[in-house]
Amino acid sequence: MSRDTDSNDQSSNDSNDVSMSRRRALAAAGVAAGIVGTGGAYSILRSGNGSEGPSDGVGLNGSFEITNDVFLDLTGETPLGIELDNRPVMGSREAPVDVYYWGDVLCPYCRAFEEDIFPSVGERYIGGGDMRMVFLQFPVASEYSPEAALWDRSVWQLVKDTEPVQYWEWRNAVFDRHPESGEEWASDEEFIEITDGVSGVDADGVVEFIEADREGLETLVLEDASAAETLTIESTPSFVFHNAETDTRRGIAGVRDEEAFIEEMEAVLD
After folding, report:
1. How confident is the model at residue 11 (pLDDT cuts 50, 70, 90)?
2. pLDDT at residue 13, as a whole number
3. Burial letters for 78-116: b for 16+ Cβ neighbours within 10 Å, e otherwise?
4. Which of 43, 80, 96, 99 places its Cα 20 to 30 Å from the Cα of 52?
5. CA atoms within 13 A on the CB side of 77
6. Quick check: 182 and 50 in contact, CB under 8 A?
7. What is the pLDDT of residue 242?
């Protein structure tokens, strides 16, 4: 990846071959069976090159304010076996319920969740101290999704120690670029342009970060996808709710409305 798109030397071709192989591995890691979507979800088993996406007309249902203080930079493994190193986490360290959210910034249903449902449930459960949400990668929505996942992880690592809220602003900027038609649109050039437009996030720095640690970033994404496979997750957005104290666990693939999310959350809180 580079702003200079005319470079075609042999080393670049070799690198691209390796990258494509890793992309196939990233997609393959998520293939599993056993989850039935309860609402809008983007499945790895889809056909065609795009999605019409969620229907319009659902407004924001809450006023949850995303600030630097909402984010946690945690390390280690959770009781469910999920690695936290270099994964964005929102909520309180003392929250009784972990919610693991497998998403893809190119998934239209993830956009719908974060714009239309998350403000309300975030205010209720993160703001209320009951939920800690872990953002995980499951790149299945588009051919460019594996690369978009690397952008996502890189932006987080570059801002998490200073202004983590810029990560959220970057995600919003990507979602804002989604076309209404659902056709394939993402590319290196598009993501450079999007990132250039986010205050405090340096597109050149992200490109350099990916080029310097591509293998490490891909390993992070593969770990997320492998965890999804273990839990029979095959679509985005998907959620696993886990109360470690009671060892109560619930899962949901796709969220059509906030009531469906609340029902699962309340079941593990009780």
Report:
1. very low
2. 45
3. bebebbbebbbbbbeeebbbbbbbbbbbbbbbbbbbbbb
4. 99
5. 7
6. yes
7. 97
Cα(70)–Cα(230) distance, integer angstroms: 29
Q: Largest Cα–Cα distance in the chain?
A: 60
Flag whether pLDDT at 63 surpasses 90: no
Q: Which two structure tokens, joined as six digits, stand for 50? A: 């795009």
Residue 72 amino acid letter:
L
Residues 102 and 237: beta-carbon distance below 8 Å: yes
- Supply the Cα-derived Rg of the chain in whole angstroms: 18
3-state secondary structure the chain: CCCCCCCCCHHHHHHHHHHHHHHHHHHHCCCCCCCCCCCCCEECCCCCCCCCCCCCCCCCCCCCCCCHHHEECCCCECCCCCECCCCCEEECCCCCEEEEEEECCCCHHHHHHHHHHHHHHHHHHHCCCCEEEEEEECCCCCCCHHHHHHHHHHHHHHHCCCCCHHHHHHHHHHHHHCCCCCCCCCCHHHHHHHHHCCCCCCHHHHHHHHHHCHHHHHHHHHHHHHHHHHCCCCEECEEEEEECCCCEEEEEECCCCHHHHHHHHHHHHC
pTM: 0.81
Distance CA 207, CA 59 (A): 34
User: Exposed, middle or buried by CB within 10 Å (0-12, 13-18, 19+), for 132?
Assistant: buried
- Domains of the chain and any CATH numbers: 10-269 (3.40.30.10)
